[in-house]
Design a protein that fits this description.
The protein has 164 residues and is of the alpha/beta class. Helix content is 20%, strand content 40%. Strand 2, helix 2 (38-46) and strand 3 form a beta-alpha-beta unit. The longest helix is centred in the N-terminal third of the chain and has 9 residues, at 16-24.
Length: 164
């Protein structure tokens, strides 16, 4: 069993509240718009990190992290990207591939809107953790935490960090 903390859209912000949840997880996944790489450097000091770059990220982030990160966690095929859309409205840049070869878990950020939705057509779970940073139109900072055990995604929790 692996405990995952999923965050996105930190926009150069990292604080002790985020780091408290980082310490409780086995792995941290970041769905882009990292901002300053100090954010990911702080996380990597504590736990293994999987991340993608987002549209606000500079060349340094783009050299360190991919646009798309597809991997297996336990027996779950995971795909993380920053601008991915959601069931029925996937981004045109990934629409064809996600239809031909859907993962079991599809993760994106960008919208600053927390959303977890099952795509019946593609038989996948979509997650967007909202925004953990203090910049953007969101009112409440959010993250997701869950566990992966074998072929199960379980114990999903919404973490509200508080107002930005």
């Amino acid at each position: 069993m692996i405990k995952i903390l999923l965050l996105s859209d930190t926009h150069s912000h990292i604080d002790e509240t985020i780091l408290k949840y980082v310490r409780l997880a086995d792995e941290i996944w970041h769905a882009g718009d990292i901002g300053n790489l100090q954010v990911t450097d702080e996380i990597k000091k504590l736990k293994p990190l999987r991340a993608v770059y987002g549209n606000i990220d500079d060349d340094k982030a783009r050299m360190e992290f991919p646009l798309n990160n597809r991997f297996f966690c336990e027996n779950i095929d995971v795909w993380i990207t920053h601008i991915g859309g959601y069931p029925g409205k996937y981004n045109q840049t990934i629409r064809e591939e996600i239809s031909k070869n859907p993962p079991k878990l599809f993760i994106c950020g960008h919208s600053h809107i927390l959303k977890v939705q099952f795509d019946k057509k593609l038989n996948l779970l979509h997650m967007n953790p909202g925004a953990a940073g203090i910049h953007g139109f969101h009112q409440v900072r959010t993250m997701l935490r869950f566990e992966i055990e074998g072929e199960k995604i379980q114990n999903l929790e919404v973490i509200e960090i508080g107002k930005k």
